[in-house]
Amino acid sequence: MSTYVNRAPQDTRGTWTTYLGLTLVLLFSAFPVYWMFVISTSTDDAVAASPPALLPGAQFLVNAQEVFTLNEVYFAASLINSVLVSGIITAATLFFCSLAGFAFAKLRFKGRNALMVVVILTLTVPNQLGIVALYIVMGKLGWNNTLLAVIAPGLVSAFGVFYMRQFIAHAVPDELVESARIDGALTLRVYWNIVLPAIRPALAVLGLLTFVMAWNDFQWPLIQLNGTDYPTSMVALSDLASGNYVIYRRVLAGAFIATVPLIVLLLIGGRQIVRGIMEGAVKS
Amino acid sequence: MSLTDLRPAARHSAPPPPPGKTKHWLYRFDIKTIPYVFISPFFILFAIFGVFPLIFNGIVALRTWRLDDRSLDGWAGFANFERLLTDEDFWNALGNTFGIFILSTVPQLLAALIIANLLNRKLRATTFWRIGILLPYLTPVVASTLVFAIFFARDNGLANWFLSLVGFGQETPLDWRAQKWSAWIAIATMVNWKWIGYNALLYLSAMQSIPKDVYEAAAVDGASPWKQLWSITVPMIQPVVLFTVILSTIGGLQLFNEPMMFDENPQSASGGSDGQFQTIAQLIYKVGWKDLDLGYAASMSWALFLIILVVAGINFAATRRLGGGR
Amino acid sequence: MRRTVRAGLAGVAATLLIAGCSGQSLEGNDDASNGASGEQITLKVNFWGDMGLDALKAKYEKDHPNIKIALNSGEFNAQHEDLQKKLVAGSGAPDISAVDEGFIVQFRNQADKFVNLLDKGGADFQSKYLDWKWKASMSADGKQIGLGTDVGGLAMCYRSDLFEKAGLPKDRDAVSKLWTNWDDFIKVGQEYTKKTGKKFVDSGTNLFNPVLAQQPVGFYDEQENLQMDGGPKVAFDVSMKAIDAGISANLASFQPNWDQGFKKDQFAVLACPAWMLGHIQDTAPNQKGKWDIAAIPGGGGNWGGSWWTIPSQGKNIDAAADFVKWMVQPEQQIEVFKTVGNLPSQPALYKDPAVLDYKKEFMSNAPTGQIFAATAESLKPQYLGKKNGPTRVAVENVITRVQQGGLKSDAAWPEAVKQAEKVAKTAK
């Protein structure tokens, strides 16, 4: 039996049980995605094979080519549209939410707590029927069936405001804000010079989550962009998956291709996040 | 929607600047008004895209709005809400929603805590593990639910194949959609799969910002990692735990995509042949778009809204108390 | 392709705009609309599956250089729902939308949201259509919201190769003689299942629907009263009997398992309206020549079939009306019949040699024209009530519960009545 010292977990070395646990978690996480890949590389029969198909086939290029060349699906264009839509939404969300989060966490103003409660309440509004009303609003703005209609409602998120508030409240010391104030710095400068650098890890996390959420959103984009020739990738994907008969190798090939950009993003941004998280730890 | 547009509007709340004292005016503006400017993008966008639909829904809820028979349109007062109380479909959906909610939220958050704790170590290939657990969150719901629907198929489904490997369901394969318990488990699995890694990441980032001296100064001498987790780490990250509890409450009670795509007969939106796994969000959708009864559906979505508020409030209070919060 | 504003303007403004639109098309007057004066028009057409429009689009665009047809095929239910949402919102609907029999009642009750085709020269077509087909898309106050495309008709598709292996006759006439009524059909099924160990039909619901279609009165009579003890009872009993006989594979139609069932030979027969042929062909392309078509027990009936409708919120309703009228011309109808199998709803075409002599290669060269035309002509049209769709779903769900083992077949009928009454009650 080992003796325990009062050492912070992050300074404790992982044991073999740690690695075993993580490996199991990873298998569980990766398997459905892996299987999606397997089907996207196979022929029609693989979906229902028994025992199940567990190894990739050689058909990926064939299936991928079908996805890209299918008429009226606009798959290639849809990937570009998705980058555009998700990129704008992410940039705006990070900016607006960190501003609002900063205000809620560190600034004093009348009605602060009440307004924060309102932010949280907005999260709880179910949207099954709101969709018709939202469509009418977009109609008034003249944005129906455009990418703008998909982008606009996503520019801020209550989740983002809430998350940023929680993070800034802890990560930015009050004294720092106060002393900058006494030196005569305006609030916007405090935000820019003090808050933003301190919340980089949170920005990385929220940015990734927002981008992924925007990329994967499909109900509202489907209503707006169904049948146009500039769909987002999820609309194109549900176009692929529609029709009375679902050709799984093709749909899942499309799904896999539409997931790859996110995986790439995670590989790039993931390091950033990890580094950010580590930095946060070192600072405190 | 730029910030400059908003300033004139916001200026109303600030008293007019004393003439000549630009510095002073700027300072007052900075203190009094800037906070509102900072939060205004959220509220303005929400007013346009959130409040109007909400009010619209509120009015619709007090009306009968029947797409199939226009002659029935009119004011209903609270009749729609009264009808809810005796609607067995509503109560069934409520039960399902809570069943699936508990089966997904509790294991989800516990697993996320444990995984975050595993990740919160000195590890080889840290980035690899952290990226790995986020994979489910990345995967488009359109794709993953399609995969899971095949996974939980009665014939030739992978889930049944795994079961048969450990000796279950040999002669008659389990029809996952036929009973409540199996359908709930299948749907909860989809939800858990998607969100565990995500929550673990949120916990991890909070855990990493706990000052190390908290552990070093801990009164419990020689605490095991397990004990350390529950007696030091969890209380320290309580705000984030609270945050995830609320989020999964809100998400869980509005569960829609998973039961929808799990259904063998999605066009009916009936959540199984006997409503085994029909959630409230799905019932709202069915009443509105299948039964074409938009007024009644709107009243259901208001009821759901209130239920979420109550449950989120209870969870908030409970989590604070359990965590021994301030 | 810009599809702009117009959207949010309510009431008065919308009327003005529609007036404006008609003005605009007057200048590009009818046949002259392909002239240089006409501006570029895109007509968006929403439908599902394959309605054989690719060739028609090319042909029409060639003859009308200023018109572009944008075909948007989607999922069956999603398309109807999309249409409904956009009708409610007042904008965003396609210029032309296909509407299926299962949804036509729902939409004809909102006739004010569609172009009344009687105003667009549609009246000329009345005499060409099967009477019931014409009436089914007509609102109570006499507005015609759609022109018929196809009717279902009813026949029984079967796997001749599997029949042969099971020692059953292979030839389509001999097979038709095996089952003049549904009891015989179930007996044949039992024999098949005994010999092969495999199931015979895909599911109980896919027996319920065609049997119900054969009855003179469906779920509702013309006074909108639920009539469960008539047709529905007959159809329900047949499905229960088949399930009890153990010949049903219990696969929900149009779902992944069903598609796999085709490939894995999990069933040997499938009740097929004409539009089902295209589906079989797409699902199991390598079963070419293994399918054949026999008569369905119990004779004619209709299951499915669609209409072309024009939402009145559209900007180019005249151009859309022209295209729709062109699509339902005999020449185009026959072309669609040949490419995908959909049977026209204009009886004159049933006498047309191009239809009568047509043989479907995929279905072992079965004379699909003759088979389906005969069933379409002999069928007794059925009134579909306002709540027909949801009632059907409710009863189908009861059948599924029996198949899943959650409900005993002898307790099923009262439950079906209860569920159907629940749906019917919401109509009041």
Oligomer: heterotrimer
Helix-strand sequence of chain A: HHHHHHHHHHHHH
Order of helices and strands of chain B: HHEEHHHHHHHHHHHH
What kind of sheet is the major sheet of chain B? 2 strands, antiparallel
Helix content of chain B: 55-70%
InterPro entries (chain C): Bact_solute-bd_prot1, SBP
Protein name (chain C): ABC transporter substrate-binding protein
Pfam families (chain C): SBP_bac_1
Organism (chain C): Paractinoplanes pyxinae
Describe the structure.
The complex is a heterotrimer of chains A (284), B (326) and C (428). Chain A is mainly alpha-helical. Helix content of chain A is 70%, strand content 0%. The radius of gyration of chain A is 23 Å and the shape is globular. Chain B has helices at 3-11, 22-61, 79-85, 88-119, 126-138, 141-151, 158-165, 180-208, 212-216, 225-236, 238-253, 257-262, 280-290, 294-322; strands at 63-64, 74-75. In chain B, strands 1-2 form a two-stranded antiparallel sheet. By secondary structure, chain C is α+β, with helices and mostly antiparallel strands. Chain C folds into two domains: 11-151 and 305-345, Periplasmic binding protein-like II (D-Maltodextrin-Binding Protein, domain 2, 3-Layer(aba) Sandwich), CATH 3.40.190.10; 155-303 and 356-425, D-Maltodextrin-Binding Protein, domain 2. Chain C has 18 helices and ten strands. In chain C, helix 9 packs antiparallel against helix 10, helix 10 packs antiparallel against helix 18 (409-425) and helix 17 (388-404) runs antiparallel to helix 18 (409-425). Classes of the chains: A mainly alpha (284), B mainly alpha (326), C alpha+beta (428). Chains in contact: A-B, A-C, B-C. Chains A and B meet through helix 1, helix 3, helix 4, helix 5 and helix 7 of A and helix 2, helix 4, helix 5, helix 6 and helix 8 of B.
Write the layout of secondary structure elements.
The complex is a heterotrimer of chains A (284), B (326) and C (428).
Chain A: H1 16-40, H2 60-69, H3 75-106, H4 112-123, H5 130-141, H6 147-151, H7 158-171, H8 174-182, H9 187-198, H10 200-216, H11 219-225, H12 233-240, H13 248-283
Helix pairs in contact in A: 1-13, 2-13, 3-7, 3-10, 3-12, 4-7, 7-10, 8-9, 10-13, 12-13
Chain B: H1 3-11, H2 22-61, E1 63-64, E2 74-75, H3 79-85, H4 88-119, H5 126-138, H6 141-151, H7 158-165, H8 180-208, H9 212-216, H10 225-236, H11 238-253, H12 257-262, H13 280-290, H14 294-322
Helix pairs in contact in B: 1-2, 2-14, 3-14, 4-8, 4-11, 5-8, 11-14, 13-14
Chain C: H1 11-27, E1 41-48, H2 53-63, E2 67-74, H3 76-89, E3 96-100, H4 101-108, H5 131-136, E4 146-148, E5 150-151, E6 155-159, H6 160-165, H7 172-178, H8 182-196, H9 205-214, H10 231-244, H11 256-263, E7 269-272, H12 274-283, E8 291-294, E9 306-309, H13 317-327, H14 330-340, E10 343-344, H15 353-356, H16 368-378, H17 388-404, H18 409-425
Parallel strand pairs in C: 1-2, 1-3
Antiparallel strand pairs in C: 3-9, 4-9, 5-10, 6-7, 6-8
Helix pairs in contact in C: 9-10, 10-18, 17-18
